[in-house]
């Protein structure tokens, strides 16, 4: 049987480090918090290769005394608490005394520091937590901490690191949160030699919000000021018309500490009840100030989870402060006139004829729709392979354009592949079409039962297609059905999207979390027609997008995709891929309330009536039946 024994100190330190240092962003967070606790007025963060090869944090705080430099890297060594009673009212960002020991255990560290009382500073070099050298050094007051080769001695953790762009984005997000938590500190962030953030440090939260979240987000915010029982709430919240597709723009702080609080999140969103669109979430930068003994921050090693002595008081304080700000807003959304869209211009490999919309094409008097490759950015295009014309179908009677008579064909044609104009491999045929006939003719000669003929009777409310089949009426939700058709097409192996290159690339600025997950899934985005690159400063540049996504909808589409990837990407990559496909299929599908021609309606109806489409990607039925008996009962005829 295995024997119980004490681990080597080095192994124990590596295990403990895993609780605090998960990735480069964890190191950045801990070092910046130490700088703020040291009273720094300026903090500079530099990283290289996502922080894996270099993290340098420089501050002008109080510094570390020369005689205490080595002690600072011991576990449970701290200057912020002394007794157990100090844990009841923690007023600093750090207090555990574990961060520097954990960082030093999994990296190579250089320390350069000097206090105001000392004439010269101290330089310290550590590797794997062990001190390699110590010497005096001339340096300004404050501390410079350099962390190199993170996880060099823990390959098990190293192999789980993401790409440099994703790790760098996570580190940038950590710096942004610290800048929002302490607007009195000027925070500067450099990635691979390029400056991506600089806050003024003037003590005004609005200035920090403007620098961190950008002009558009700052202008869409409302100021919040409120006080509850023994607590106060200040900050900014977004106007209802400026809500976003994810919660990535929600930032909560308690006594200057960034936290993840379900209570505060629920209070915020409850204040927006009946004022925001379904599926949209408000953004905020909210600071809750309360008594130190009313909140417990000693819950998790990362110190981002807290417990309140009274969750109800916190909920009420946030709810009523935000509600008051929303009710006091008397502004109305400004009308925005859509400028000419440069991406609709002729691309180098298109003619003007090829960029016409389906409606413009039909207006020229052409009886057939243009081929899919000739349709531009309207979602009415049908890129889905159409089922073959059905022999025996009744003619369409309530449209002026007569339907061409179907060519006679034997019964097996009903299960044939897609028409030749689709220029992609046909769907696999049923097994009996590929395999040689079995020796018993009776088995192979039995044809599949013929489906009952149906007739396209029209459309109502510009949303539902009406089909008559025998003794019943079928109502088809055209958006749900078309969405499923696109979803199946996107999932097909070898599918290549129609990609339009933007003459003027679109620059979007997602939240830090959204930007990180998008950069981490660039191959997936490229597969579905997006060409996205990192632009610096947390922005992304989009050089191409699918032809069915309008230029004005690129940012919202990417935000939705990022939200789906954040929700499912880590748990199940296949689920993340399907979640992205759901969004892309929805964007490409024809919309309810949209006018469509008879050919487009027939394609959708054909897919549903053939049984190829039964449910939308979200599980909703695409069609319902109404029998003659049900109708007669309504009219008291039965």
Automatic annotation (TrEMBL):
Top-rank lineage group of the source organism: Bacteria
Positions of the DNA mismatch repair protein S5 domain: 209-327
Bias (Basic and acidic residues) ranges: 421-435
Residue ranges, annotated region (Disordered): 330-353, 383-451
Keywords, alphabetical: DNA damage, DNA repair, Endonuclease, Hydrolase, Nuclease
Function: This protein is involved in the repair of mismatches in DNA. It is required for dam-dependent methyl-directed DNA mismatch repair. May act as a 'molecular matchmaker', a protein that promotes the formation of a stable complex between two or more DNA-binding proteins in an ATP-dependent manner without itself being part of a final effector complex.
Annotated protein name in UniProt: DNA mismatch repair protein MutL
